[in-house]
């Protein structure tokens, strides 16, 4: 029978309450993620999955380096592309999107619906963990850090964790114009309740007109790029500003306030469009309500329903800084590959004395 | 969901101390054959909460597991039972129940949904 661990209560009540309220806000899903990550992936899941087939060599190499029989935990597994990639390992994947998880389970993969910021796993069960193109969908630094802490928590001492995220410094700059940068005056509208896409301010702003955002079809482009290495990034961004992302005081602040503060520092917050072809949209069924509520817009020229996905792209060194704040893990590798920042952590081994 | 996953799962509801194991309420269980790999099974023995596995297997209709895991020498008959319980029993429909809070996490088409509601976080 597992020992029940009880913490010695050495904190004052006020400290405890502050801790609890800040941990409350960390584990709760902010509105921007509900609208521009969760609902979008739910609506686009099969189409998204059809574009996600190429295995990124860097991830494959990591997985293939693991000892035979390793239990690998994939947090934010999406369509399960990497589950089972190394046939000698046992993979367990989770994602917050039910439709994406259904695609995995239809393939016979061992999966569950769960939140990467709050993994329903006991500690140290995994031999390794991966988080591929996930953390950039988390809208606050505390949540991104929590997700890293979770990955470290669930692997055994000495276990490895691979994390990849979209870089602010994109290799292909020709696609710069496709992304919509979040700006403060739109945060309230887009993140708050109501119909963001239908608000007069948005509608009358030519910047948000689709004519000003040229687009290529993502899935065809991915296919043409060849299978050598197709990371999750499709488009690039503007010139990154070389500013530091500080660990802000984020206790007791609403997610809107936190986002507004982040925007003041540097532009790393974007909406990246996803074009869902009409025939796909009809099949999914979610698009009718998305259009009605203003979550998505029609592009009759392309014959697509356009969704926006929220991204916080990472600047150089940011992922490392975040990870180095996790006490019981060290960075053993760091690299930039195909417009992604990547890091490998190793959880502290147990003391041998 | 197979018992290898169930053995790892916890209820993360705020305030709950006894987060695992979750009690299984099985409505539909199917058996799917999996290749026998003794090395993998020995590797898993160190990770597995044995009582949770025994109870979980019982809830899914399999009662052959010994109450205690053997010591260092695990022979083939034992490994075969361990293999069957850990990897071949699939919960298709049912619930995972938090022993402390009573909260039920649904399992549909073999997939558990462990997402918490706003107030539970």
TrEMBL record, chain A:
Residues 73-163 form the Methyltransferase type domain. InterPro entries: AlkB_tRNA_MeTrf/Diox (IPR051422), Methyltransf_11 (IPR013216), SAM-dependent_MTases_sf (IPR029063). SUPFAM superfamilies: S-adenosyl-L-methionine-dependent methyltransferases. GO terms for cellular component: cytoplasm; nucleus. Residues 235-252 have a biased composition (Basic and acidic residues). Residues 1-25, 218-252 are annotated as: Disordered. GO terms for molecular function: S-adenosylmethionine-dependent methyltransferase activity; tRNA (5-carboxymethyluridine(34)-5-O)-methyltransferase activity; tRNA binding. Keywords: Methyltransferase, Transferase. The keyword Transferase applies. GO terms for biological process: tRNA methylation; tRNA wobble uridine modification. PANTHER family: ALKYLATED DNA REPAIR PROTEIN ALKB HOMOLOG 8. This is Methyltransferase type 11 domain-containing protein. The lineage of its organism: Eukaryota, Viridiplantae, Streptophyta, Embryophyta, Tracheophyta.
UniProtKB/TrEMBL annotation, chain B:
Signal peptide: none annotated. GO terms for molecular function: protein heterodimerization activity. Coiled coil: none annotated. SUPFAM superfamilies: Trm112p-like. Pfam families: Trm112p (PF03966). It comes from the Eukaryota. InterPro entries: Trm112, Trm112-like. PANTHER family: MULTIFUNCTIONAL METHYLTRANSFERASE SUBUNIT TRM112 HOMOLOG B, UPF0315 PROTEIN-RELATED. Interacts with TRM9. Belongs to the TRM112 family. This is Multifunctional methyltransferase subunit TRM112-like protein. It comes from Brassica campestris (Field mustard).
């Amino acid at each position: 029978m597992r020992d029940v661990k009880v913490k010695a209560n050495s904190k004052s009540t006020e400290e405890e309450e502050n801790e609890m309220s800040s941990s409350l806000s960390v584990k709760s899903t902010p509105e921007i993620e509900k609208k521009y990550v969760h609902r979008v992936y739910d609506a686009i899941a099969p189409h998204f999955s059809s574009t996600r087939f190429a295995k990124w060599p860097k991830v494959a190499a990591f997985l293939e380096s693991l000892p035979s029989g390793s239990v690998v935990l994939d947090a934010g597994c999406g369509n399960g592309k990497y589950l089972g990639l190394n046939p000698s390992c046992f993979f367990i994947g989770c994602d917050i999107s039910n439709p994406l998880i259904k695609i995995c389970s239809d393939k016979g993969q061992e999966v569950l619906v769960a939140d990467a910021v709050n993994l329903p796993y006991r500690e140290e069960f995994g031999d390794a963990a991966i988080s591929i193109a996930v953390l950039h969908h988390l809208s606050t630094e505390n949540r991104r850090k929590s997700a890293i802490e979770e990955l470290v928590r669930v692997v055994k001492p000495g276990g490895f964790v691979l994390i990849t995220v979209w870089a602010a410094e994109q290799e292909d700059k020709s696609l710069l114009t496709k992304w919509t940068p979040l700006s403060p005056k739109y945060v309230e509208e887009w993140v708050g309740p109501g119909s963001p896409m239908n608000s007069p301010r948005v509608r009358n702003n030519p910047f948000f007109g689709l004519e000003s955002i040229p687009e290529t079809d993502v899935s065809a482009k991915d296919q043409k790029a060849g299978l050598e290495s197709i990371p999750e990034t499709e488009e690039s961004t503007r010139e990154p500003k070389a500013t530091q992302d500080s660990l802000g005081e984020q206790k007791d602040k609403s997610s809107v306030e936190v986002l507004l503060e982040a925007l003041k520092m540097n532009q790393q917050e974007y909406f990246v469009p996803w074009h869902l072809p009409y025939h796909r949209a009809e099949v999914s069924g979610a698009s009718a309500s998305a259009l009605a509520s203003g979550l998505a817009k029609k592009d009759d020229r392309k014959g697509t329903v356009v969704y926006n996905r929220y991204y916080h792209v990472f600047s150089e060194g940011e992922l490392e800084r975040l990870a180095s704040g996790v006490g019981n893990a060290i960075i053993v590798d760091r690299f930039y590959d195909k417009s992604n920042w990547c890091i490998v952590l190793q959880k502290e081994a147990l003391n041998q004395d | 969901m197979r018992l290898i996953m169930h053995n790892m799962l916890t209820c993360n509801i705020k305030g709950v101390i006894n987060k695992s194991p979750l009690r299984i309420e099985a409505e539909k269980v199917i058996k799917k054959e999996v290749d026998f790999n003794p090395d993998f099974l020995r590797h898993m023995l160190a990770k597995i909460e044995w009582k949770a596995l025994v109870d979980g297997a019982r809830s899914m209709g399999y009662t052959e597991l010994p109450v205690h895991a053997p010591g260092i020498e695990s022979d083939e008959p034992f490994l075969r039972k361990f293999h069957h319980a850990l990897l071949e029993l699939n919960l298709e429909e049912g619930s995972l129940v938090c022993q402390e809070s009573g909260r039920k996490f649904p399992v549909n088409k073999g997939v558990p949904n462990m997402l918490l509601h706003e107030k539970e976080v």
